[in-house]
Amino acid sequence: MVRLAIEGGEPIRKNPLPIEADVIGEEEINAVLEVLKAKRLRRAEIAEEYEAALAKYFGVKHALAVANGTVSMHAILAALDVGPGDEVITTPYTFIATASVILMQNAIPVFADIDPEYLTIDPADIERKITDRTKGIMPVSITGQPPDMGSIMEIAEAHDLWVVEDAAQSPGATYKDKLIGTIGIASSFSTISGKIIATGEGGFILTNDDELYEKIWSYHNFARKRELGWASKYFWGIPCTNYRITEIQCAIGLAQLKKLDKFLEIRRRNAEYLTKGIKDIEGIEPPKEAPWGKRVYYYYVIRLDREKLGVSLLQFAKALSAEGVYDYHYTTTTRVPVPCHLQEIFTKKIGYGKTKCPFECPLYGRKIEYKKGQLPNAERACEEVLWLLEPHPLLTKEDLDDVIAALEKVCNEFVKRTQRGEKIRI
């Protein structure tokens, strides 16, 4: 019997893999030094250069760089006049930010279930969730997988709804021949550390809508009017906030954007290498690519056959962590997600100022519940899909071979024990 590392055996590797690493070279370092030498850290010319480069890369009219990928979504919803009594449909299989920005506008997140194969929002369930309060749809390109944007846009057009793309994890992904982030009325990207391009904190917005762009720009900069310049004052026609980005972030982003295609190529190559190495291992399945587009690999995820393995997702993660190819500490964050509708903020309807608003707001006037069993595909995914690693450019062939070897070791041992009828205790 193989002795697993978690049982005192020899681990596959002793040095941990680099997790969610940022690929920073001389270009980024020199770009930051130039900003520091110029002694102008606040948003200025570099930000405009970065935005122009983003607009050119994605082939859109407008790009706006902002402080992070959460405020980018919030600024869009604010500019779309989402408010109390409104509903916005989104996926439960996403980071909490996607849903929380809807709450920030005192609106109600309504969750549609996901496609069990590709983990993106299911258009058929979107249609079932539409009411007379629905204002829009927010699909998410989770792990870099593009949603079925064609079907989503058809539904939106039929019901006079807007679509805002949460593309935080998917720069460079495509739906058919269109880049993700260029299909809906606007889109939001994140460049926080660990993302495909990273600026520490940061994000950006894309849109082809001139009027919407002006409103987003105003909202992100204390309600100023763009044509009056950065120093304009006293034009506070909407609630004020400051979501501005810095020159340092933009300098790094500009350098990273020039490397994006190379980053994507290496990530895909690493992912394909992993898939080739694990596709025949019993008890797990590699990620799938949706027929409607080309994914990018922000994360490489695997699906567990819990019946064959005889363990839970967390038990499997612990065993893999002991082999040195997985960081178990990440299981409490995004690597083993809890579906949004089962987060405490929704199940207990925790609102602003110790109230239950907007869930029980008089302007909404309806009853909504969030509970287990409502979205079975998303709930099952959170019990079976392990966010294994980011296949980023700093991983070597030896690193990938260690991951494959650890998966083979752990899976084979669990499957054999389960077939023998043994109870696995971890």
Determine the fraction of residues in helical runs and give it as a percent range. Answer: 25-40%
> Helical region count?
14
Classify the beta-strand content into a percent band: 5-15%
Strand line-up across the major sheet? 1-9-8-5-4-2-3
What is the rounded distance between the termini? Answer: 16 Å
Order of helices and strands: HHEHEHEHEHEEEEEHHHEEEHHHHEH
Please tell me how large the radius of gyration is: 22 Å
Structural commentary:
- The chain contains 14 helices and 13 strands.
- It has 426 residues and is an alpha/beta fold.
- A 7-stranded mixed β-sheet has the order 1-9-8-5-4-2-3, with helices on both faces. Strands 7-6-11 form a 3-stranded antiparallel β-sheet, with no helix packed on it.
- The chain is globular, with a radius of gyration of 22 Å.
- It starts with 25 loop residues before the first helix and ends in a 7-residue tail after the last helix.
Brief account:
The chain is an alpha/beta fold. It has helices spanning about 25-40, 45-60, 70-80, 95-105, 125-130, 150-160, 210-220, 245-255, 260-280, 305-310, 315-320, 345, 375-385, 395-420; strands at about 60-65, 85-90, 110, 135-140, 160-165, 175, 180, 185-190, 205, 285, 295, 300-305, 385-390. It contains 14 helices and 13 strands.
